[in-house]
Each structure stands twice: as structure tokens, then as C-alpha cells.
Automatic annotation (TrEMBL):
SMART domains: HDc
UniProt-listed GO biological process terms: NAD+ biosynthetic process; signal transduction
Composition-biased stretches (Polar residues): 1139-1164
Protein name: Phosphodiesterase
Species for this entry: Cryoendolithus antarcticus
Binding-site positions, Zn(2+) 1: 788, 841-842, 956
Length: 1217
């Protein structure tokens, strides 16, 4: 019973009526139909990182004991009988004598976390099991849950108070009432405490008075809590919960008939039209609707009657029930489903949908509008948002409610199952769940709000202020989705990437029992005075820390145990809601045992069987950790040992103690395994951007410091390699690349002019690591990842050093040269802005091009109106990182506009605009006006901005100008990324968004020809043109010429190889005919915009006052789709009007007179670099001497078209088309 604490605040459970009405109505039905059935309930804390302490458990124990003293008073029974007459005299008599038998029915225990200090502050997990007769135990759920929540926030999270709770509830109530919402209070289960609940009720009643006085259209209908309904004279609200149908299904074992049986017995208990809001999602709404159309019993009909008898009414349950309750899944989809259902059955009259899942004011208003638009009546049961909405007092962050449940687990010894409309809410033994899914034809659907453990986090997208971006994320509905399997939603899209991946670590080396859960915010402490690898415990602790570190393993939670049983249980728990990595320690080397005697092998084989049998709802990915070599014998584990584990089902073997390279492989496997479906690529990008804009927290110091962990000799090599044009990016780890970037940033900052912008090495490293985290892993995105970002940054760095914008390198033997007048326009600050821009120029890249996003109607494409979609996103996302990590930079007057200009310049759709303005600048410079003092300030500013943009463009495609060994490696990974996009397009069933179609990764000839063609059309003109105004970058032109000759040699060698082997060359290119060239030229001109006059001054096309859309310009989607079918040999489906890639193609059936051998292949074939684009025109400005065409019949102003089935389709560069 409720008590009063030292502050005079009431706490605990006030009455047996301090519960939700649906528990009483179900108890009434159970008393009638199942009075002798035995059940058990289990408690689950889905917020596993929120641990109870010993003091909380002690208080909870005492409060649970006090439940035995609670009983219904005569006054309460009389009030209930008058208010809820449908309960009947028999039930009221039963309730009057009802008592909680706590000692017999409740098992309550506290399980300390291993290593937690003893005393009141000792952390642990609470276990609750309720068992007994169903009718006698059904009322425990609500009081136990509310007591658990109250205990946690009374003794663990205490940084809050009750101030303002009444006013907050009143404000929310007023918003709902003014908006016309009909709502009730549903917050008993997870309330902060009794006093909060009381304050909320008072606030809502104040809002009700204001609404009545103001004539507002909304209505406060009551509360689910029977005690507060009586106390404040409002209606108790509620009908039924999943428990009713779950229990009936378990008893009968007939899951396909359970919904109908539950509806029938409910109707026979209370009568037609009484308590007639049906809960649809116990086994998925589609399964429920099959039962909802069945004929309902007449009033007074025996509940055991067979539904096929003739004397049943023709009225279906759907007709006699007032409506339905939506408690999981996508509410907007549910609205349309119910509208279609009712319309299809010809059911007239407004039916009601009651929404009750994670509601807020904004969601209520949104669902109200959608429901009314569908011709249905909305109502809302708002719970946790009312009774547990708090912020911490000392820091400005959310005091997050616990996500705790008590669910029916067994009936008469038979396990129960719940499937829901969100697979994250499914429950039951995996094998039984799979059987029921199969029997019902149930299809998994993903969480609407992500992991259930984080349902009410402050980061929940719909709880944000950035509604306009969150709306884009929520609105993502590709046009092709109806052709696919049921789609997942936002958090499900990138399960591992959003920090929701967990690990189970089976530790056999500790030498003692170990059992602990470590959260990423609370990793195991380092052992003072001990080496990181001193003894097994030290090694394991170090391994767990590296797994949890956001810059290394990035795991959300690691469960560590030496008990195989505990590990199995935890896998079962984790895999029901998140992807789970299983790490199994092997002791085979130390023990001398054979593989078959190693417990890790037996565990692994059983786990592999379960994984292959699809037992788990989410991915389970097993790895084996092999011990380090014996310090005595120095014998490493043999290759045969590793093979044993791989054969048993391990994805890979790792070496303990875990090193960064081990983590990179582990995370790479996980990322590859968890790659999102095509329709879910990049779905969280808009939401993440909204999150970052709202984030005002100050970043802490990085715990991972690559500059301190990499050996000094290796660091010296990295710092030396940064000075080479042949920078070997592919030979370096991600940590090494990060250190290379650190060196470059610190070197540029040595300029005296930049003293005021210097920050500490730790802060620079924090920015670099935060930026690196925003790039996808290279197993997810092969090209546009952190490696590419650092490579582009290093190109910029070389340019700056050669130009003399940054201080000379101490060890450099390069002779200083006189800077030209144009080079002197660039300042050290410009150099810093360029370098910083390069670091984040592709941040968040999803590995597909703009055309793909436009074709899928992606939220970002909508947000940026199909123009420079990814480039705009990179700018916005990176700006937020800089705002938090390097605020002094973002305060520079022109910093943001310059950075935006630089990054947008990497959109190759605008390549020829830049080339045209470059020509104007060269002309003006060559006309004798080399003295920039004679130029107007505006012209000098335009020249500066243009040169920065051109340097960024050159750096972005600089890999074609690297020494051949480096350049060819980049070509390989670019082809892999394009091939991956081709797979996604095929999965979606859309035309390709890559010119020439997806590439064949094994076609050397195709790759060589495309590289040569790209250099001819884009590389040479750009680098040659830049070198004429910035001579310091001329080295790149020389390397381009060497690479061109090398690729030409490769082409000839491949042709000769194919010819000598006597094989057909289906992927070798033949020249197109004149007719095809004419068609292509016509198609190209149709898609061109009107020619825009160029300013006489050398203004950059990226200047803010330059409007590329001023001339009439057709949508990229419309142009591309029109021409995709009008040109038979083109497979262009990019929905982009640009012509970046030059394609040499033939029709599917070759003309007999047309050469088909490799000897007739065209020599110039281009896969464009950067975003798919349509040039306004190919400039006629001079090009490099090596830029020539070998066949006049293939000349189309420098443009050709690839064969149909071939090619390195797409583009490269910042956006990678």
C-alpha cells in the first residue's frame, strides 16, 4: 500500500485499484472462462544498461511485501459496480475478497554485476517471476512495473525533481484539446512515481477546464488507472491486452484460431458493443483481420458454440466492435490498412482507431489528421509521455524512462508467443515463434522506432525539434517498395551503424567465474598499476574496452561471462532485438587439447546450427578469439587450429589481445553481413542530420589515440609518405590514415597567420575521429570512405606545399620557386579551409550516386530538390561536426561559404561550368593583366574562390594522376562500388543509374578503356588547365601522361591475349555506327540547358550569387527517363540529365557488317568521375597534347557511348555516381 516518505510525498501503490482497467476486465473474463489455469509471468528490462542498485532493490522488496496488505474497500467496490456495470456481481464479489499472496506468488531477486562494489550502491539486475492461478496473479503486472520504475528513479537516477510536472501536463493537455484530439491518460505502468502520476492528473484536469471554457474541440475522456479515475471523478478507460489472446492460444495450441476464439469469449463475457475496442497485433494485424470478419455470437449465445452453426448472426466482429487499437507497427500504414479493410467489407459508419504506442503531442496531431482523412475516428491513450517526461537538473539531457515489461510466459506449462506488428516486440521461445510464424504466414516487420531498449531516448527522431528533417526521414517510401518484401524502417536500416550492435563474449581464460554487462558509456575500468595485458583478466578487460570504444569496435553493449549457459541465454535475449556478435575464447593452445575437446568448438557448432536454422530474429555472427602465442614456447596457434573453427562455423578467427587490425576485420565482417536492403540505403541520413543540428553537447576527449598507439618508427614513415605524390593510401590502416591527416593539419597550422585558430592535438584528433565515424566502413562503401577522404586531403596538402601556401616541410629538398600572381591570391587561411574541406567532403556517403537517390525518391533528394543531393548533405553534416569540434573555425566570416563552395565543386555535374570559367580566367590572365593589383576586389575574390574550387576538384579525382601502381588500385575499388550499386538497382528492379550498366569487376579491358577515356575527357583538360594558372601542380600532368600510356599498353595486351586465346570477347567494345552517334548527339542536345552567359570577370560558378537554375532547366528525372527508352542501346536509367560517362555500346544483336572483335574496339571510353552529370557543352579550349582521338568515326565532340552489357558505369569523385 502507499506510504509517505520523509518529504511528505506519497510513494508506492495506493490501492488495489491503482492499476489499469484492462487488468480488471481481463480478470473478470479469466474468472468466467479459465478459473483453474496456472500461469507464470516474467519481468524484462529492455533498457539493459539501466541497472538497479542494492538500495533500489531493498526498497522494492519492502514495497512488494506491502502489496499483501492491500484490499478493495466497500466504497471502491460500490463505485466500480456503478461505474462499470458490465463487470457483473460475481466478479465484484470475487474482487472484494481478492488478496495478493506475495510470499506464494512472487519470486524476487537481485543479481549483482560482477565487479560492482558492495553496499547500497552495488549495481545489478532484478529478476521477477510471478506464478500461480491466472485469475489470482493477473493483477500483479501494473503495480510491479510502476514500483520498479519508482525504485530506479528514487535510488539510481536521482538527478530530477517534481517541479513543473503539473504545468507540463497541463500544457500538453491544452495542445491536444486545442488540436481537437480525444485522449485519455495511460501512464500507470512506467510512471516516474505515484506523486508524478497524481500531478499529471491534476494538470490534465486543469487543461480540461480550460478546454471547456474555451470551447476547444478536443476531449479528455479519462484515465486507464482505476484509482485515479475514482479519485478525480473521471471515467476509467480500457478493454483488453495481448495477454488474453496469448493465453488462449497457448492453451489450445491453435494459433490460427486464437484470435477468433479470444473475440468470441470476450463478446460472450461482456456482450455486444461493450468493451469493444479490439487489439489487433498479438499475432500480427493481418492474422487478426482474418478472424475479425468471422460472424459474431448473438447476445446470450454459448461461448463454446461452433462458429459454423446456422443460428449465428450474420454480423461480423468487425461490425459489432466499435473499433480497434493500434499498439505496434507504423501507425500511418495501420490507418490505411483499416480503411481498406472496412471499405472492402462494406462496413459503414465511422469506426474508431485508438492509438497507444509511444505517443507525443505531435504524433497525436499527425495521426488524427491521417485518421480523419481516411474517414475514421481517432482516439489516443497517452502514457509515458505524460507520467515519465523528465530532464536532468545538472546537465541538459533527458532522464530517460525505463523500458520494462512483465509478460505472460506460460499457461499450464505451455509457453506463450507474441508476434506483434514490430518484430522488436515479439516474444517467446525462438523455436515456437518460428513455428507460429510459419503456421500463420507471418512476415517480420521492422521497428518503427528502432531498438525497444531505446524507445524513449532523447534521441528518438520524432521527439526532436527538427521536425522538418525528421519528416523527410519518416516519409521515405521508394516508388518500388510495393514490389519488395515488407520494408524495414529507419533504425532497422543500418542496425550496426547506429550503435545498436551487441556482443556476447564467452570468456574461458579468466580462471574464475565472470559475469558482467558492459555498456559503451561504462566500459570496464583499467586496472591501476597493471599492464594492459597483465594476466588473463587484464587481457579480457582490454578486449572489452576496445570492443566498446566508439572509434574501434563501436559495440553498444558487451556481455562477458565464463558460463556457457549464461551466454546462451544472453544470445537468446540480444538476438531478439539487435544484431549480435558472439566472441568465443579458445584455450586449445594452452591446454594442449584437440579441437573436439575445446568447449568453444562445441559451443560454436551448436550456435552455427541455430544460425543456419534461422532461429534468431536478428543476425548472430560468431568469431573465435585465439590466444596469443605462449610466452614460454612462443608457439602461435597453427593454421589447422584456425581452420577447425572456421569449419565449425566461425566467420573468422582473431588474436587476443585484440588489436586495431583485428577490430577492423571484425567490424568489416559485421558491416558486410548487415548491409541494408536496397530500399533502405541511407534512410537515416536526414534523421541523423536533424540530430546533429540539435546536438549542443561539448565533445569529450577521445579515448582512442592512434598517434599514441602506433609505433614511432611507423609514425615517421607515415609522416614521410604524406610528402609523396605517390601517397600509398591503400597500404595504411584507418588509424594510420588518421595520423597522416593529423600531421597535415598540424603542419598547415604552423603558419604564423593561423595562430589564433590552433587547437590542441587532442582536439584535432577528436575532430578527425568524429569525422571518420561518419564515413561508412570500407566493407560497406568501397570507395567513398575515410581512405578516399584522406587521399583527397593529401592531394590538397601537396598542392598547398608546392604552391607555398603553407610552411615548407623541414625535410624537403624541393627548391622554393617564385609564386605567380594568381598563386599569391591564396592565403594560409585559404589553405586551411581547403584542407579542412577535403577531410569532410564526402562525409556520410552511402555508396550510391545522386541519380540512385533521385530515382528512389529518397528523403535527401526531396530535401535538396534533386540537385547536388549528396554534396549538399556532406556540407550540412560536416558543418555540424566542425561547429562542435572546432568552433573557432566556424566563426570566420567567409569560412562556411568557402567550404560549401569547395565541396559543391566536387559535383561533376557542374564540371564543364568550371572548365568554362577556368578558360575565362586563363584568357584574362594571358591578356597581360597579370598584375592582380589592377583587378577589382570582386574579380580578385572570384579568382580566389575559383582557384580553391578547382584545386578541390583536382584533388577529388587526383587518383587518376597518381603513379600507376596507386592509381590502378583506386580504379579497382571504384569498380567494386559501382558493381555494388548495380546489385542494389537489380534488387529494386529499377533501370540502372550507372552509365553503361554495372561494371564487370573482372573485365580488365573495360576498366582500362574507361580509365583512359576519363583521363582524356576530364583529367587532362582539368589538370592541364589548372597548371597554366598554377604551375606548381604541373607534376600531375606528367603522371597522367605516363598513366595514359600504361593503360594503352594494358588495352593492347588484353586485346592480344583475347585474340591469341581464340576466345570471343563479349565485353570488348566495338565502334558504334554513325546513326547511333547522331541519335546520341540529339539526345544530348535535348537535355542541355540554355547556354548561360558567363560574366566577364573570372567568377566562380559556385559563387552564391550565381544561379545555375536561372535558365529554364528540365528535371534530371524527367529528361533521363524520357531518353532511357528512346535510345535502344542505352541502359541509362539514372534519372539524371547529365552525360558524364562516355559509353561505347552496340545493340543486343550485332550487325553482321559491324566488327565484333577486340581489334575494332574504341580506344576512348570514359567512366566519369564524380556525380552523374550533363555538361552544358564540351568546351573547345585547348587540351593537353596527349588528348587525341584515334578514330575519327568515334568523335562526338569528345563523347562516345559504351556497349550495352559492359563498362565501368557511373562516375567517380566526391559523389561517385
Amino acid at each position: 500500500m502507499a506510504t509517505t516518505n520523509s518529504g511528505g510525498v506519497r510513494e508506492g501503490i495506493a490501492s488495489i485499484f491503482d492499476t489499469d482497467l484492462y487488468k480488471l476486465t481481463m480478470q473478470c473474463a479469466v474468472l468466467k472462462h479459465f478459473p483453474a489455469e496456472h500461469v507464470s509471468y516474467n519481468f524484462t528490462n529492455r533498457t539493459t544498461h539501466m541497472k538497479f542498485n542494492r538500495a533500489a532493490f531493498t526498497w522494492l522488496q519492502n514495497q512488494v511485501k506491502l502489496l499483501g496488505d492491500i484490499r478493495a474497500t466497500t466504497d471502491e467496490i460500490d463505485w466500480l459496480g456503478a461505474t462499470c456495470p458490465y463487470l457483473g456481481a460475481d466478479y465484484l464479489a470475487y474482487l472484494k475478497q481478492y488478496r495478493f499472496k506475495v510470499a506464494e506468488q512472487v519470486d524476487l531477486s537481485f543479481n549483482p554485476v560482477h565487479g560492482s562494489s558492495e553496499g547500497d550502491g552495488q549495481l545489478g539486475e532484478i529478476s521477477i517471476r510471478v506464478h500461480g492461478l491466472w485469475v489470482g496473479t493477473i493483477l500483479y503486472e501494473i503495480p510491479l512495473l510502476s514500483l520498479c520504475s519508482e525504485a530506479y528513479f528514487k535510488f539510481v537516477d536521482k538527478d530530477w525533481n517534481h517541479n513543473g510536472q503539473m504545468e507540463k501536463a497541463e500544457h500538453k493537455g491544452c495542445q491536444l484539446l486545442e488540436s481537437g484530439c480525444s485522449f485519455s491518460e495511460f501512464g500507470s505502468r512506467r510512471r516516474r512515481d505515484y506523486h508524478t502520476h497524481d500531478l499529471v492528473m491534476q494538470g490534465l484536469l486543469q487543461a480540461k477546464k480550460k478546454g471547456e471554457k474555451g470551447g476547444w474541440p478536443g476531449k479528455f475522456t479519462g484515465t486507464s488507472n482505476v484509482h485515479f479515475a475514482k479519485k478525480y471523478g473521471v471515467l476509467p478507460i480500457g478493454t483488453v491486452a495481448h495477454e488474453w489472446t496469448m493465453g488462449i492460444a497457448a492453451l489450445s495450441g491453435k494459433y490460427d484460431h486464437a484470435n477468433e476464439e479470444a473475440l468470441r469469449r470476450w463478446t460472450m463475457t461482456f456482450g455486444r458493443g461493450v468493451l469493444s475496442i479490439a487489439l489487433t497485433d498479438t499475432f500480427g494485424t493481418p492474422s487478426f483481420l482474418k478472424a475479425f470478419v468471422k460472424p459474431a455470437p448473438k447476445d446470450g449465445e454459448d461461448a463454446t458454440s461452433n462458429s459454423s452453426t446456422e443460428d449465428w448472426s450474420t454480423d461480423s466482429y468487425a461490425t459489432i466492435f466499435t473499433g480497434v487499437r493500434q499498439d505496434s507497427g507504423n501507425p500511418l500504414d495501420f490507418i490505411q490498412m483499416m480503411k481498406t479493410f472496412y471499405d472492402g467489407r462494406g462496413i459503414k459508419g465511422s469506426k474508431t482507431i485508438v492509438f497507444s504506442d509511444s505517443l507525443t503531442v505531435d504524433r497525436c496531431i499527425e495521426y488524427k489528421q491521417a485518421t480523419e482523412a481516411a474517414g475514421l475516428t481517432p482516439s489516443f491513450g497517452v502514457g509515458t509521455y505524460f507520467t515519465n517526461d523528465f530532464w536532468h537538473l545538472s546537465v541538459n539531457d533527458k532522464s530517460v524512462p525505463m523500458n520494462i515489461v512483465i509478460k505472460l510466459a506460460e499457461v499450464n506449462g505451455k509457453s506463450t508467443v507474441k508476434l506483434s506488428d514490430d518484430r522488436g516486440k515479439n516474444m517467446g521461445p525462438s523455436k515456437l515463434v518460428d513455428e507460429v510464424k510459419h503456421n500463420l504466414g507471418y512476415t517480420d516487420k521492422s521497428l518503427v522506432e528502432g531498438d525497444e531498449a531505446h524507445r524513449w531516448d532523447a534521441a528518438a527522431p520524432w521527439a526532436r525539434d527538427m521536425d522538418y528533417l525528421a519528416a523527410f526521414a519518416a516519409a521515405y517510401t521508394p516508388a518500388v517498395r510495393h514490389e519488395l518484401r515488407p520494408a524495414g524502417t529507419r533504425e532497422q536500416m543500418e542496425e550496426a551503424a547506429d550503435g545498436r550492435c551487441r556482443a556476447v563474449y564467452y570468456c574461458t581464460s579468466a580462471g574464475e567465474h565472470v559475469s558482467a554487462v558492459h555498456h559503451w558509456k561504462d566500459p570496464p575500468a583499467r586496472r591501476e598499476g597493471r599492464s594492459e595485458e597483465d594476466g588473463p583478466r587484464g587481457v579480457v578487460g582490454a578486449n572489452v574496452r576496445i570492443l566498446l570504444d566508439e572509434d574501434q569496435g563501436g559495440f553498444h553493449e558487451v556481455f562477458l561471462s565464463s558460463s556457457s549457459r549464461e551466454c546462451w541465454e544472453r544470445i537468446e535475449q540480444y538476438a531478439g532485438s539487435t544484431p549480435t556478435v558472439v566472441l568465443l575464447e579458445s584455450q586449445q593452445l594452452q591446454s594442449g587439447k584437440g579441437a573436439d575437446e575445446d568447449p568453444a568448438i562445441a559451443f560454436l557448432r551448436s550456435l552455427a546450427t541455430d544460425v543456419q536454422g534461422a532461429r534468431y530474429q536478428h543476425h548472430v555472427i560468431p568469431f573465435v578469439i585465439l590466444p596469443a602465442a605462449s610466452k614460454i614456447a612462443d608457439i602461435p596457434p597453427s593454421s589447422e587450429t584456425a581452420t577447425d573453427y572456421l569449419n565449425a562455423g566461425a566467420v573468422e578467427t582473431l588474436r587476443s589481445p585484440l588489436k586495431p587490425e583485428d577490430l577492423s576485420r571484425l567490424v568489416g565482417h559485421v558491416k558486410e553481413e548487415l548491409r541494408p536492403r536496397a530500399d533502405l540505403i541511407g534512410v537515416t541520413m536526414a534523421r541523423n542530420l536533424a540530430d546533429s543540428i540539435r546536438d549542443t553537447s561539448h565533445p569529450g576527449k577521445p579515448s582512442h589515440r592512434p598517434d599514441k598507439t602506433i609505433l614511432p618508427a611507423r609514425l615517421r614513415y607515415i609522416n614521410s609518405a604524406v610528402q609523396w605524390w605517390g601517397f600509398p593510401a591503400h597500404e595504411m590502416s584507418m588509424d594510420e590514415l588518421t595520423c597522416a591527416t593529423l600531421f597535415m593539419v598540424e603542419h598547415v597550422l604552423k603558419a604564423p597567420e593561423l595562430a589564433e585558430y590552433r587547437i590542441s592535438r587532442s582536439d584535432i584528433m577528436g575532430l578527425l575521429l568524429a569525422t571518420r565515424r561518419q564515413y561508412k566502413h570500407e566493407r560497406e562503401v568501397h570507395y567513398h570512405n575515410w581512405r578516399h577522404a584522406v587521399d583527397v586531403t593529401q592531394s590538397i596538402y601537396i598542392f598547398l606545399v608546392n604552391i607555398g601556401v603553407c610552411p615548407p616541410v623541414e625535410s624537403s629538398t624541393r627548391r622554393a620557386t617564385e609564386r605567380t600572381s594568381l598563386e599569391r591570391v591564396l592565403t594560409p587561411l585559404d589553405g586551411l579551409i581547403l584542407l579542412v574541406s577535403a577531410i569532410g567532403h564526402d562525409v556520410g556517403h552511402p555508396g550510391v550516386n545522386n541519380a540512385f537517390l533521385v530515382a528512389c525518391n529518397h528523403p535527401l533528394a526531396q530535401l535538396y530538390n534533386d540537385k547536388s543531393v549528396l554534396e549538399n548533405y556532406h556540407c550540412a553534416a560536416y558543418t555540424q561536426l566542425l561547429r562542435r569540434h572546432w568552433p573557432s573555425l566556424t566563426k570566420i566570416a567567409n569560412f562556411r561559404s568557402s567550404m560549401i563552395s569547395n565541396i559543391l565543386a566536387t559535383d561533376m555535374q557542374r564540371h564543364f561550368e568550371y572548365m568554362a570559367t577556368l578558360g575565362e580566367l586563363k584568357k584574362k590572365h594571358a591578356d597581360g593583366k597579370q598584375n592582380l593589383d589592377q583587378w577589382a576586389d570582386k574579380d580578385r575574390e572570384h579568382a580566389r574562390e575559383l582557384m580553391m574550387a578547382l584545386l578541390m576538384k583536382a584533388a577529388d579525382i587526383s587518383n587518376v594522376a597518381r603513379p600507376f601502381a596507386v592509381s590502378s588500385e583506386w580504379a579497382k575499388v571504384l569498380i567494386s562500388e559501382f558493381a555494388r550499386q548495380g546489385e542494389l538497382e537489380q534488387e529494386l528492379g529499377i533501370p540502372t543509374c550507372l552509365f553503361g550498366g554495372p561494371p564487370n569487376k573482372d573485365d580488365v579491358l573495360s576498366a582500362a578503356q574507361s580509365q583512359k577515356g576519363f583521363m582524356n575527357l576530364f583529367g587532362f583538360p582539368l589538370f592541364q588547365g589548372i597548371s597554366e594558372i598554377i604551375p606548381s601542380v604541373a607534376c600531375s600532368v606528367e603522371t597522367l601522361q605516363v598513366n595514359q600510356a600504361t593503360w594503352e599498353q594494358k588495352i593492347q595486351e588484353e586485346k592480344e591475349r583475347r585474340g591469341s586465346e581464340g576466345k570471343d570477347a563479349p565485353l570488348t567494345f566495338s565502334s558504334v555506327g554513325r546513326n547511333e552517334i547522331n541519335k546520341a548527339e540529339t539526345m544530348h542536345h535535348r537535355s542541355e540547358p540554355a547556354v548561360m552567359p558567363l560574366p566577364s570577370a573570372p567568377s566562380s560558378p559556385s559563387k552564391r550569387d550565381h544561379n545555375p537554375t536561372a535558365a529554364s532547366r528540365r528535371s534530371s528525372k524527367d529528361v533521363a527517363l524520357e531518353h532511357m527508352h528512346s535510345f535502344p542501346s542505352s541502359r541509362r536509367g539514372s534519372k539524371d540529365e547529365s552525360l558524364t560517362t562516355i559509353l561505347v555500346r552496340s545493340h543486343a544483336t550485332s550487325n553482321a557488317t559491324q566488327p565484333s572483335s577486340a581489334a575494332t574496339s574504341a580506344d576512348t571510353n570514359v567512366a566519369g568521375e564524380g556525380e552523374s552529370r550533363r555538361p552544358p557543352a564540351v568546351p573547345s579550349s585547348p587540351t593537353a597534347g596527349g588528348l587525341r582521338e584515334s578514330r575519327s568515326r568515334s568523335r562526338l565532340r569528345g563523347l562516345k557511348f559504351w556497349r550495352k552489357k559492359s563498362g565501368l558505369g557511373g562516375e567517380r569523385g566526391s559523389e561517385s555516381s
